[in-house]
Write a structure and sequence with these properties.
Strand content: under 5%
Distance between the termini: 49 Å
Oligomer: single chain
Largest sheet: none
Number of strands: 0
Order of helices and strands: HHHHHHHHHHH
Structural class: mainly alpha
Radius of gyration: 21 Å
Length: about 240
């Protein structure tokens, strides 16, 4: 458990401790089960709020109100808002980066000495889009949260920690698929890929309005059908 996700013990018994004890007695659940459920509710609420307003647009009171608890209880689990923010980021980051790493490694094995740009991008992009879409609203909220905070200094630092290994795995495969390309072109290509992915995850609704409803921001299957092929063509065009 990281410092970001480790709850800060209460220094003394107060309203939060009494509330937990009473709730545990009523439900018949153990303290550990009660605590785990409360923690998930807090993370879900914070994830939603951070996805809408970012780190500085949300207060601990906002999170407590959304959960329906007193702010005192929130402090039992998290030292401050920064720790809560990092916990929200970390909760799903390991899942998405792990799934993509597994997909890339599997593709690498299957492709052998002949990897392709579109194959590598499908492993990287399709796997992630499936996870968010099939995970329902909680995962879609996390995607929006990640897209928003990736553009901030505090979010970029967390992106470095949790996502650099899987990004560099993709880049390594792309280098072998494009042996005559410069590292500069490949890294710029990745930059454009991640920009398109983040714009998709943000679900701003802009494409809905521009297209008159023909395209929908949350239609990830439609994005998946096109994005890898489109981005692969961009990589290949860099050689011209």
């Amino acid at each position: 458990m990281t410092d970001a996700t480790r709850p800060t013990p209460a220094r003394k018994k107060g309203a939060g401790s009494k509330l937990k004890a009473a709730s545990t007695k009523r439900s018949g659940r153990t303290k550990a089960e009660q605590r785990a459920e409360s923690l998930e509710q807090i993370l879900d609420a914070a994830e939603y709020l951070f996805s809408k307003s970012g780190l500085y647009g949300v207060t601990l009171r906002d999170v407590a109100l959304r959960v329906g608890i007193h702010t005192t209880l929130l402090h039992y689990y998290f030292k401050d808002k920064q720790h809560l923010f990092e916990a929200v980021f970390a909760r799903r980051a390991g899942v998405t980066s792990g799934r993509r790493m597994e997909a890339l490694e599997q593709y690498e094995t299957e492709a052998g000495d002949s990897p392709t740009v579109v194959g590598a991008l499908r492993a990287f992009l399709d796997t992630d889009l499936d996870l968010y879409y099939e995970g329902g609203e909680p995962w879609m909220n996390y995607g929006t949260f990640g897209a928003r905070v990736s553009m901030t200094p505090e979010g970029a630092k967390l992106m470095d920690v949790y996502f650099d290994p899987v990004v560099l795995k993709l880049v390594d495969i792309l280098k072998r698929a494009l042996p005559d390309y410069s590292d500069e072109d490949i890294f710029w290509g990745y930059h454009f890929v991640t920009g398109a992915l983040m714009n998709t995850l943000a679900r701003t609704g802009r494409i809905d309005r521009l297209s008159g409803g023909i395209c929908q921001s949350d239609d990830f299957p439609a994005v998946k059908k096109r994005i890898a092929k489109f981005m692969a063509a961009g990589f290949l065009a860099l050689k011209d």
